[in-house]
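Sample intake — MGAT4 family member C
Collected from: Leptobrachium leishanense
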Amino acid sequence: MITRKAGLKKVGNICILTSNSRLRYLDTMRCFRKRSAIPVLGLLIICLLFMNMYIEDEYVLEEDKRLRDTSTSRFNSDRYSPIIKDFSNFSSSINISYRILAGVPSSRKRYMTIGLSSVKRKKGNYLLETIKSIFEQSSYEELKEIVVAVHLAEFDLLWCETVVQDISRKFSHHIIAGRLIIIHTPVEFYPTLEGLKRNYNDPDDRVKFRSKQNVDYAFLLNFCANLSDYYVMLEDDVRCSRNFLAVIKKVITSRMGSNWVTLEFSKLGYIGKLYHSHDLTRLAHFLLMFYQEMPCDWLLIHFRGLLAQKDAIRFKPSLFQHMGYYSSYKGAENKLKDDEFEEDSIDVPDNPPVILSTNMITFENYELSKAYSSTEEYFWAKSPSSGDFYHMEFEKPIKISKIKVSTGTDDRQNDMLHHGTLEVGERLVGNKKGKKCTTYLRLGDFKNGNFEMEGIDRKVLFNIECIRILVTKNQIEWLIIKSISIWTAEPVTQ
């Protein structure tokens, strides 16, 4: 490696004077060749070092200033001045004056906001059907915990007025109840949408469309930041699963104590992506910063990665389905469907908080927690021996109605639990390093790698504090625990 600093060139571990410094050095040597020149040379070299450092630092500072000025000038010329000043603090809201076209933000913070951004389409309009699906697929109690925010991201104000009238006629009671808000962002707050970078060889109109969409979403996120605890993004042509909020709440509860940025409830585009509301302003800033670089669903992957969530956390079956036939981009046909969507009520496990432990040898990053979720991930261990266990310790004693455990996968069917049993326990003892129950009750054996039992609350008279999956015979094959699902019942009164 070669580095340059203060007139020196470093090759490996050897420092060599650069060409200019070498000439100065030779001139000095001629002048003082016949006398002892060591003290003078030392002083000269030190002077040269400081002089070169000063010159290089001045150049770096001037160049850095030039780049900053150029960058700022570019943003200012792009009409970004109303919002660029806020980039210094990503946790602060972007200063935008919204037009609220219908509804009033409630003073009471809800559990979840559902955000939609909509524009005028050349063919088809599915916005009213999407809003209808959200409300119809929610129970009365669930409606109390949600607010739907619709961003009409269209510069045609006549179209916006028409849509507001249609929505108000059909959903007036939801607007009055504070469950539906319609907003619009004036065009002067938008950055330039002309002459943008043509990444991925997209045509100009496609770049303009997806860049504006990023800004549309950013302004919607910014508006919704303080309306609720959680936020889920939908598109304006989506059908919802029945009682989707109840399912989402169960998933959130099951992941209490774990760090996540995004939970996904659909595998399509920007549909069914859930966030903590405290991340919304940061995400809004992020989308604005890179609005012309790539589509929003690609930017979201980078966003969660920057916040240390490497992999997607997606749940099945999907809770939201794309129903639009015509795309909002040029009215092109879009027949994309989520084949994992289920519209009817979904029997999602409760999976209460647990502390997990095992004495098996875990393979790479296929850790314990990946079995205790509804995602596509799993726990994977090297060949288990008789007596090996997967242990679950509940935070508090619970009553369980149903347990279901699946091992092995479609492509690794032999990595199932060939010989094992499932036990529940009580009287938890131990210390911070690990706890175990003093008494275990065997519920049954695994059959073909699976275990499932219902009505456990009628068979087990005590409140359960532990569950143990126990290997009862050595196996050569490795072990995949694909999923562990637990449904709770009312706790036993002591």
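Post-analysis note: The first strand starts at residue 2 and ends at 5.
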